[in-house]
Design brief:
This protein is mainly beta. The protein folds into two domains: 3-142 and 209-246, no CATH class; 144-203 and 249-282, SH3 type barrels. The protein contains four helices and 21 strands. The protein has a 16-stranded antiparallel sheet that branches. It has a three-stranded antiparallel sheet with strand order 3-2-10. A hairpin with a 4-residue loop joins strand 8 (114-119) and strand 9 (124-129). Residues 1-32 have low confidence and may be disordered.
C-alpha cells in the first residue's frame, strides 16, 4: 500500500502535514480522458519520428525557484494510452538525500495539472502541481528517421545497415495491453543465421500507474485537493511524497518476428506478441 505525506523541499516551503487517502481507497471522481488542446497531437508526432522535450520556467515567486531561470529536459521514455501520455527523463538527475547522493528522474504528462520526481531506488515519487512553473510546454523535435515498420512486413536489411553504421536506435511498440511504449535502444543485434534482429531497450523503471489513465486521475485529485487544504505559504503549490510505489521495469527485448519479452517474461522464459513495432534511428 502506498503511503502519502507532505514533503517540504526547502525550509521556506514547510507546511503542516497533509492527510490524504491512499490511492487504492479513493473514489475515482475525476478521471482524465482528454489532453490539453495544445498537447493533443504529441503522441502522433512521436510515433512519426519526433523526440520529446519539455521547456520550463519555474515561478520565481516561490522562494525555492528564485532567481528566475529557464530549464529543459529530454524525455526519451514515453508511455501512451491513445493521445494521453506520461514521459520521463533518464534516471540521471543527481540529488542529495540526508547527505547521500542519489539519482532520480522527472516525469511529465498531458493528463491534467501534475508532474513528479521519481526515485526508482526508493520507490518514491514527489508529486507537484504544474502551477509551480511560470511556463511549461512540451516540444516535439523531428530528429528520428523511421527505418522499419512491422506493419509493412519489411526486410531487416535497413536495420542491419544502421547497426553496421553505429546508429542510435529508438523503438515505439504497441504492446499486448494496448499501450504504446517508446524507449531508447541499449543494444541492437542482428543474427545472420536466422536473419532476425533483436532490439534490447535501455533498462529503466517508472511508477506502475503511468499505464493507467484512471489511476493518474485519482492521484491528481487526491494530491491537488490535499495541497489546496494545506496551510502552506506556497498557496497549494507544495510537494506530496508517495512512498512504496509499485514500479514497472521497462526493459524489453523486441524481435523482428513479432514477439517480445518484458522483464517478467525474461524471468519466466515466455514471449508476448506486439501489435506493431516501429524502429527509428537518430538523423
Amino acid at each position: 500500500m502506498s503511503k502519502i505525506k507532505k514533503r517540504p523541499l526547502h525550509k521556506e516551503n514547510a507546511a503542516k502535514s497533509i492527510s490524504i487517502p491512499q490511492i487504492n481507497n479513493i473514489d475515482q471522481t475525476k478521471i482524465i480522458d482528454q489532453p490539453r488542446t495544445e498537447d493533443k497531437d504529441i503522441v502522433k508526432e512521436i510515433l512519426n519520428g519526433a523526440s520529446l522535450r519539455t521547456f520550463m520556467i519555474p515561478d520565481p515567486a516561490m522562494p525555492s525557484n528564485f532567481p528566475e531561470h529557464w530549464e529543459c529536459y529530454d524525455l526519451p521514455h514515453v508511455i501512451a494510452n491513445g493521445n494521453l501520455f506520461w514521459a520521463k527523463s533518464r534516471n540521471e538527475h543527481g540529488t542529495y538525500v540526508t547527505g547521500q547522493l542519489t539519482s532520480q528522474s522527472f516525469c511529465y504528462t498531458n493528463m491534467g495539472s501534475i508532474f513528479l520526481s521519481f526515485n526508482m531506488f526508493a520507490a518514491a515519487i514527489g508529486v507537484m502541481p504544474k502551477s509551480r512553473y511560470k511556463e511549461h510546454r512540451f516540444i516535439p523535435i523531428k530528429n528520428l528517421k523511421l527505418i522499419w515498420d512491422s506493419d509493412k512486413k519489411e526486410s531487416p536489411e535497413t536495420v542491419v545497415q544502421e547497426i553496421e553504421s553505429g546508429s542510435r536506435f529508438r523503438v515505439a511498440f504497441f504492446d499486448s495491453e494496448g499501450i504504446w511504449n517508446i524507449h531508447p535502444v541499449d543494444l541492437p543485434t542482428y543474427c545472420p543465421s536466422s536473419k532476425q534482429f533483436m532490439l534490447n531497450t535501455a533498462c529503466d523503471m517508472y511508477p506502475l500507474f503511468f499505464r493507467s489513465i484512471q489511476e493518474t486521475g485519482t492521484l491528481e485529485k487526491q494530491v491537488v485537493d490535499g495541497l489546496a487544504k494545506a496551510d502552506s505559504p506556497n498557496g497549494g503549490r507544495g510537494c506530496v511524497e508517495v512512498t512504496n510505489m509499485r514500479r514497472f521495469i521497462s526493459r524489453y527485448s523486441l524481435l523482428s518476428d513479432g514477439r517480445y519479452q518484458s522483464h517478467s517474461d525474461s524471468l519466466k522464459g515466455t514471449f508476448q506478441e506486439y501489435e506493431r513495432l516501429k524502429v527509428f534511428v537518430e538523423e
